[in-house]
Design brief:
This protein is mainly alpha-helical. 74% of the residues lie in helices and 3% in strands.
């Protein structure tokens, strides 16, 4: 089992480095051209941070359950650095994938954020205090859920694949 765990850690770490490295390289090239990932993909970094927070919150709850009903070995396994790294990477990655589902328009409706409408609104009329609008809040909530739930984004992927296959079958 240890060999499998180490391989999973290596794969997850490699994917995280490739993703973050690709984001950094893209950002560097865009900055040279006068653009930024923050400008081109508003909310992406916030979504990733919310996914990370969701994953850590999930791990905290899982640790509490294991300490109350499990053995010391269960707690140690849940708290190992490679388990934490994989869960955090999954949370960030799931939130990033969900962001691009929103961006593509594959998830639309009143429950989903409209990334084109992300803005800050006046807290009260006549003040300069600004708060995130409804779409910012929805982005944070759903990104948190994506990081928290290990099944949320995979379920969306499966349903999207099924819709794509049904559409493909109807075309031929």
């Amino acid at each position: 089992m240890r060999g499998h765990s180490r391989a999973l850690v290596v794969v997850a770490a490699t994917l995280a480095v490739v993703f973050v490295g690709g984001l950094a390289i893209t950002e560097a090239r865009l900055v040279q051209g006068g653009y930024s990932v923050v400008i081109l993909y508003p909310g992406l970094l916030l979504a990733m941070a919310a996914g990370l927070f969701g994953a850590t919150f999930s791990m905290l709850m899982q640790t509490q359950r294991r300490t109350s009903s499990g053995t010391l070995d269960d707690v140690e396994a849940a708290a190992s650095w490679h388990t934490l790294l994989v869960r955090c990477s999954f949370g960030v990655g799931a939130a990033a994938i969900l962001y691009f589902f929103f961006r593509s328009g594959l998830l639309e409706g009143s429950l989903w954020p409209k990334l084109t409408d992300l803005k800050f609104e006046a807290f009260t009329q006549g003040t300069e205090q600004r708060i995130p609008n409804r779409d910012w809040c929805l982005l944070v909530i759903w990104s948190f859920v994506a990081g928290f739930s290990e099944n949320f984004v995979p379920t969306i992927l499966v349903k999207t694949e099924e819709k794509g296959q049904a559409g493909k079958a109807g075309v031929t």
